[in-house]
Structure formats: structure tokens, C-alpha cells
Amino acid sequence: MAEIGHGGKKIVERILEPKEAAKKIKGLTEIPIRSQIANEVIDLAYGWFTPLQGFMGKADADAVCRSTQLADGTVWSIPIIFDMTESEISEYGIKEGGTVLLTYQDNPMAIFEIDEIWDYNMEDMCNCIYGTAEQKHPGVVRTCGYKEKFLGGKITLVNRPTINPPYGPYFIPPLEMRKKFKEKAWQAVVVHQTRNVPHTGHEWLMKGAWAQAYGGLPIKEPLCGVLVNAIIGAKRKGDYIDEAIILCQDELRKSGYFGDHNHLTSLTFWDMRYAGPKEAVFHACIRVNLGLTHHMYGRDHAGVGDYYDPYEAHELLQSIPREKLNITPVYSMNWLYCPHCGEITSEGLCSHKKEWQKFSGTLIRSIVQDGVKPPRLIFRPEVFDLVMECAEKYGFGSPFVTDEYLENRTPVFSIPPLGA
Q1: How many helices (H) and strands (E) are present in the chain, helices listed first?
Q2: Which residues of 61-72 are buried (b: 16+ CB within 10 A; e: fewer)?
Q3: Which end of the chain is more exposed for a tag (fewer CB within 10 A), N or C?
Q4: Residues 351-399 pLDDT 10s
Q5: DSSP per residue over 69-133, as a string?
């Protein structure tokens, strides 16, 4: 039976087997690509970006910018585009109707059938997607850094990525993910979007969302799960290292704070745009394709600085009809520690506002940097120990991204020689 994804479209893996791939790529012009494009090629080929089959043409990109939907009316909020300079297009002899071979790490990765070459005003795109064109916004910096021309057309993977340790168990594409949900007999699954190692505020955010998603389901056997979907992409100095993020999220299950019956950790390749409300909608689209029924949204989802109102993403999601975006948002206030209550609680539950101790990012990072095990009400001891272990094993002594980590880390995935 076909698996139906976002927009009511069938999820299809656009991947060739090695023998067929070897024939198809003969004589094609080779174009090397950077890591962001490689991530998006994987997302396109495995179905994370259903209904997209490739990089957008101008009509789709313009519709996304102007009305948060594709040209056919399907909800979509972030342009997925392939950029090149005019001189590169000339150098490679690229023309509309042609086909090229995309390479990554000097090996064949994907066939790109080019339907259209187009351009766009980047300041307009930034204002539409981010609500600003200020260069202080990291998404604006990324978008304004695109080259002046764009290529639209279908992508077909010719070489499956090798997922390097420790990420292998967490690479679960949409069709495989849906099989896992069926094996677990989960009738409802709520996703936790993250770029962090989990403190207890995150843990209770997940537990609160699990309870909301469980709703009126029978309790005789577990029918609801939490999927942690860690975003793995470009890193900035000071971010948590990817290994710590993925392993520490899974440690909550391994140490019994969740269990196999209600928790699963996975990853999605994506370079964050920090687009706030628009990125919240984008996250919902790709999680529909993973088979999720619910998506949790806390305060300032995917935001940066003070560019967005804390609950602006909630308002945009509420404006989209359910038949257009088939996933149920689960909205949450902040979880924090209340010394008066003596427990982790939510802003929406207790009234001891003057005593609240919030889990600020600055506080948590200072605790991690000090390396002194904090109270278990802040960090589960097993998680904190693993953060420190990851720092030594993967982070060259630090759990945060450094220049040394960026230069010497093992890549999350590799593209092997074709047929290897």
C-alpha cells in the first residue's frame, strides 16, 4: 500500500541501484556541491521533502515567498533552491533541459535534471521568509549568500550515503520510519524538534506533549510515542556538537526516563534558517512525511534574537486549515523549576512566579562548561555524564562546537565511490 505524505502525495524514494546508476551517469557533466545542498539532496531523494521531487523552479519559490504555499496550493514555507553563478553555468555548459551529475566529497551523488534557470531578488525573499533583511539574522546571511542564479529540476540519488558512527541507528527515512511506528503499534506520535542536549525542562516538555497527544486513546497498552527528531546540519561555534545532541537525547530512553514503548530518537539533515513561524510550518510539513500525527511547539520555535513574538509560530499554524497541513500542533508554555512546589512545572500550572527558576540556555551552558554534575532536577546524571564523555570522545575536549571540531570532526555522512 502506498504511503501518503504531505499534500496528499505518495512518498517515493528517488534512488537508483548501483548498476543502473553507473549507466545513467556516463558522460554527464560533474558539478561539486556544498554540504547544505548535499543535505537537501538526501531529503529530496528519500521523501522528507514530499511533494517536492527536486529543487524549486521560480513559480514554486515565488508562491512560497508570497503565500506560504507551492504553485499548486500545497502548504510550504521555505524555498528549497539550488544556486549557481552565471559564470559557473557558462563554464559547465548548463542549459534548460540538460542533465548533470552532482558530486560530493569527490564522488557521484545525484542526477539533476534541469528544467529551469531563473533568478530572484534576495532582499524580497528574505523579507518574505524571515520578516527582515537585516544581516544580523543568520537566515538572512545564508540566503543573501546565495549565488545570482537558480536551477530547478528533479533529483535522483545515484549513491546512498554512508552514515558514520555514532549516527547510523538514527538515520530513519520516512518510509522506514512509518514501518517502525506500525511495528510499535503507535496510533499517535508527537515529535520533539531539537538542536540541544536535553535538560529536565526538555524532558518534561516531551512528557507534557506525550500526555496531550495520548488524548482519549485506551491505556491497556502503549499507543502513543515521542519521536525526538534532531536537526543535523551546519554548525556554528558555541552550538552543541552533533554527537552529544543525538546520543544524549537517546540516553533518556536508555536510562529509563522514557522506554522503548514510548520513545524513539532520529535525525533529519537540515541547515537551520531560524525563520521562526515560517520554519515552524516547514517542520510540520517534513514531519507529516515522517508519519507524525502531532508536533510540539514551545516558545519562540525556530526563532533567533527578538525577531519574532514568542508565540507567533502558534498563530501562523492556527491559521492553516487542517486539511492543508495534516498534523496536530501541540502548544506548550515553558517548563521550569519551582522551589516552592519542589518540582519541575509549567508556567501554566503554578502561581509562584517570583520563585520560578527558568532553564535559560546561558545557565545550562555554564553548568556544562563548569563540568560539575548539577542537581538531577536540572540534568539527569546519566545525560550529564554522557555530555562529558562526548566532549572527550568527539569534541576535542569540549561539548560545544569549536574551530578544531569544525576542522577535524568525522562527517555525519560520507558519499562512497559508486558501487563501493
Answers
A1: 14, 16
A2: bbbbbeebbbbe
A3: N
A4: 999 999 887 777 777 878 877 788 888 889 999 999 999 999 999 999 9
A5: B-TTS-B--S---EEE-HHHHHHHT--TT-EEEEEETTEEEEEEEEEEEE---HHHHHHHHHS--
Non-local (6+) Cβ contacts of 347 within 8 A are 333, 334, 335, 336, 356
Cell of 15: 534512488
Which grid coordinates belong to 275?
525563520
Q: How far is Cα 164 from Cα 112, in angstroms, rounded to an integer?
A: 25
Residues of the chain with pLDDT under 50: none
Residue with cell 542526477: 111
What is the sign, positive or negative, of the torsion defined by CA atoms of 265, 267, 272, 277?
A: negative
Hey, what amino acid is at 390?
A: C
Residue-level length of the chain: 420
Spacing of C-alpha 193 from chain mean position: 7
Q: What is the distance between the alpha carbons of residues 42 and 78, in angstroms, rounded to a whole number?
A: 17
Q: What is the pLDDT of residues 188-201, one digit of tens each?
A: 999 999 989 999 98
Axis-axis angle for helices 174-184, 277-290 (nearest 10): 70
Ramachandran region of residue 59, left (φ > 0), alpha (ψ -120 to 50) or beta?
alpha
DSSP bridge partners of 268? 231
CA distance 155 to 406: 28
Residue identified by cell 551552558 is 365
| Separation CA 236–CA 144 (nearest Å) | 18
Angle at 232 between CA 418 and CA 171, to 5 degrees: 55
